[in-house]
Design goal:
Elements lengths: L12 E7 L5 E8 L4 E8 L4 H18 L11 E2 L9 H6 L1 H12 L2 E6 L2 E6 L5 H5 L6 E2 L1 H12 L8 H12 L5 H21 L9 H18 L8 H32 L13 H5 L3 H14 L1 H17 L12 H4 L3 H14 L4 E5 L3 E4 L5 E4 L4 E4 L2 H5 L28 E2 L2 E2 L17 H9 L1
Parallel strand pairs: 4-5, 6-11
Antiparallel strand pairs: 1-2, 2-3, 5-6, 7-8, 8-11, 9-10, 12-13
Bound molecules: protoporphyrin IX containing FE (HEM).
Protoporphyrin IX containing FE binds next to helix 6, helix 10, helix 11 and helix 16.
């Protein structure tokens, strides 16, 4: 029963719904679109009805908020799907690559889709990516999304959390000219967790799955490298503590990691590639290294020719050093940096498996020029998505037999790194983008590559 004015539900745009007593009282503050007034209603509802009313109310709000029937002139083709508000969310969540391939066939290299109440403009022309990744934050923002994820997934608004500050704090460590210090620490910590765990297992041998192996050890060693060890100089006891502590951290992280994609998909319009940087803090970024190492090892194990080539390269390099591997306290950075065959294997394995969503929040109404001379308008509040996994990475025009692993795809005949790849007769600047590109390119790229190689 209303205690104040009678509210016409049909034409109200609600601003706020609050509850005084969860089961019985519903307070509605709403804006009347015709009268421009704020009306406040107080309703007493039978227990149980509240939840249904709340649900219907919320649904209506969501549908109202998401109505966009057609693209304006100059905007990319719009595809809202057949389900109100949800749009293409289900198909997108199930298999983004197949969905986006289908949309590309229907609409071309650029289109806007409705996904869970959000309008997402998808750009799939690799020649046009450069403009996007170098746009200033005031136009296309990467960090707004990280904050959004924090709020949605964790219901967390940290008063002092700023992704830009976090990035600034990480930069000096990760982009230090001399990577050697990080590489050395990683090498020592890898030995601590790998050899220590094996010794603790008794016989010296410990059996585990390849993914578990890659994920577990890289993440734990990475954690100790970036967040510090128990004591320096290391002792037997401190190493044991490092192992236990990092194993606990890994366990907790793994549980969260399994949970997050589900949560993200449930609450967001666009699911993120696992380990994408949005909002999970710097530690979580290291979670990318395990899967990357897993695929690298798997491709090597499945391709004897590739494995032999990498072995040959390593043996040749080691023959030039004065120490044997067992004598080395670290792998010299110079050695890690002069392995074009292993680099090619890593690039090829990332080309086939790394599928990050490069997303940006559109901060202002924007004109976006395409490389072919066309220009499209983007609306403030929409999201822009690049998906390099489809193109360039799996594009048959750029890579012959794109589904096939070719370990030397990124090698020239003289053994140097191959950088020339073409689409529409034009050389590509971005021919593979597992690390992103531009302002927000992965800060941990060099550290991650060194760690995986070790
Ligand atoms: C194989 C491992 C990794 C892959 C494939 C990877 C990939 C990526 C990608 C695709 C982006 C986003 C680019 C964008 O949206 O424009 C990114 C950003 C980032 N990555 Fe990585 N990453 C890896 C490992 C790491 C590690 C180990 C660290 C640090 C410990 C790290 C730190 C970062 C940071 C800080 C950003 C955000 C940059 C910014 O805010 O502008 N990444 N990474």
């Amino acid at each position: 029963m209303a205690e104040t004015k009678k509210v016409k539900w049909k034409c109200m745009i609600p601003l706020e719904i609050c509850t005084q007593n969860w089961h019985t009282i519903l307070l509605v503050k709403a804006h009347h679109p015709l009268e421009s007034t704020i009306m406040v209603g107080r309703y007493s509802l039978p227990s149980g009805c509240f939840r249904i009313a709340h649900l219907l109310f919320s649904l209506r709000v969501l549908v109202l908020m998401s109505v966009r029937v057609a693209a304006r002139p100059g905007e990319p083709p719009l595809d809202v799907g057949s389900i109100p508000w949800l749009g293409h969310a289900l198909e997108f969540g199930k298999d983004a690559a197949s969905f986006l391939t289908r949309m590309k066939e229907k609409h071309g290299d650029i289109f806007t889709v409705l996904v869970g109440g959000r309008y997402v403009t998808v750009l799939l022309d690799p020649h046009s990516y450069d403009t996007v990744v170098w746009e200033p934050r005031t136009k296309l923002d990467f960090h707004a999304y990280a904050v959004f994820l924090m709020e949605r997934i964790f219901d967390l608004q940290l008063p002092h959390y700023s992704p830009s500050d976090e990035k600034a704090k990480m930069k000096p460590t990760l982009l230090h000219k001399d990577l050697q210090a990080l590489t050395e620490a990683m090498y020592t910590n890898l030995r601590t967790v790998l050899l220590g765990d094996a010794t603790e297992a008794g016989s010296g041998w410990h059996e585990m799955g390849l993914l578990d192996f890659s994920y577990n050890f890289l993440l734990r060693a990475g954690y100790l490298t970036l967040y510090g060890v128990e004591a320096l100089p290391r002792t037997r006891e401190s190493r044991a503590q490092d192992r236990t502590h990092s194993a606990d951290v890994f366990h907790t992280f793994r549980q969260l990691d399994l949970l997050l994609p589900k949560l993200a998909r449930g609450s967001l319009s666009v699911g993120k590639h696992r380990g994408d940087p949005g909002g999970r803090g710097s530690f979580s970024l290291q979670g990318n290294m395990g899967p990357a190492a897993f695929w690298l090892l798997l491709f090597l194990l499945k391709n004897p020719e590739a494995l032999a080539a990498v072995r040959g390269e390593l043996e040749q390099l080691l023959s030039r050093t004065e120490q044997t591997v067992s004598q080395m306290t670290t792998l010299p950075q110079k050695l890690l940096d002069s392995m074009p065959v292993l680099d090619s294997v890593l690039s090829e394995s990332l080309r086939l498996t790394a599928a990050p969503f490069i997303t940006r929040e559109v901060m202002v109404d924007l004109a976006m020029p395409m490389a072919d001379g066309r220009e499209f308008s983007l609306r403030r509040g929409d999201r822009l998505l690049l998906f390099p996994f489809l193109s360039p990475q799996k594009d048959p025009e750029i890579y012959t037999d794109p589904e096939v692993f070719k370990y030397n795809r990124f090698l020239n005949s003289d053994g140097s790194e191959k950088k020339d790849f073409y689409k529409d007769g034009k050389r590509l600047k971005h021919y593979s983008m597992p690390w992103g590109a531009g302002h927000n390119q992965c800060l941990g790229k060099a550290y991650a590559i060194s760690s995986i190689k070790q």
